Description:
The complex is a heterodimer of chains A (114) and B (111).
Chain A: E1 3-7, E2 10-13, E3 18-25, E4 34-39, E5 45-51, E6 57-60, E7 68-73, E8 78-83, E9 92-98, E10 103-104, E11 108-113
Parallel strand pairs in A: 2-11
Antiparallel strand pairs in A: 1-3, 3-8, 4-5, 4-9, 5-6, 7-8, 9-10, 9-11
Chain B: E1 9-12, E2 18-23, H1 29-32, E3 35-39, E4 46-49, E5 63-68, E6 71-76, E7 85-93, E8 99-102, E9 106-110
Parallel strand pairs in B: 1-9
Antiparallel strand pairs in B: 2-6, 3-4, 3-7, 5-6, 7-8, 7-9
Amino acid sequence: EVQVVESGGGLVQSGGSLRLSCATSGFTFSSYWMSWVRQAPGKGLESVATIKPDGSAIFDADSVRGRFTISRDNANNSLYLQMNSLRVEDTAIYYCVRGDLDYWGQGTRVSVSA
Amino acid sequence: QAGLTQPPSVSKGLGQTATLTCTGDGYNVGNQGAVWLQQHQGHPPKPLSYRNNNRPSGISERFSASRSGNTASLTITGLQPEDEADYYCSAWDISPSGHWVFGGGTKLTVL
């Protein structure tokens, strides 16, 4: 059974940092592109970053470029999102998503206070 | 990074058929097809169809996806109360380096 479990969210002040993790199981992690997608309160879905199986990041949203870094550890079947210089507008639920958006985690909530 | 276009809301009666639309361009929907997602309040999105319009295992045959040019559609037949939810489309955009683009979502109300 495919499992995708995010962790690392929390409350942080503006300008602070957080590192999100996504633990996966039930599939060959090293074969799949992976993405982080976020959803601000009451808003729609927004792609944050996508990474290829070999670890080369191929997309960062304009709103996070230079502040967020996506990475992966294929040996440990894990995906990460390092978030620096956080802003109030980064407040959202962050989802870890497999490949063609076919499996989603439950999400981890990030709240940034002014 | 422009998004895909979805109507904000659609209302239909119990047992009726709803067709939701998603319009992009030749770099996303027209090139790669669209994924459809259903989201109930407080829950993560759930895939209803893949880019090839196939349904994931366990998804009711009442949900069917199609595409014509740059517009993708999701048709839901025999509407049930549990179909009331937000529906999002997404497509892989090949410009410039590739990224997922989402529609703003359609709130489906079952009357």
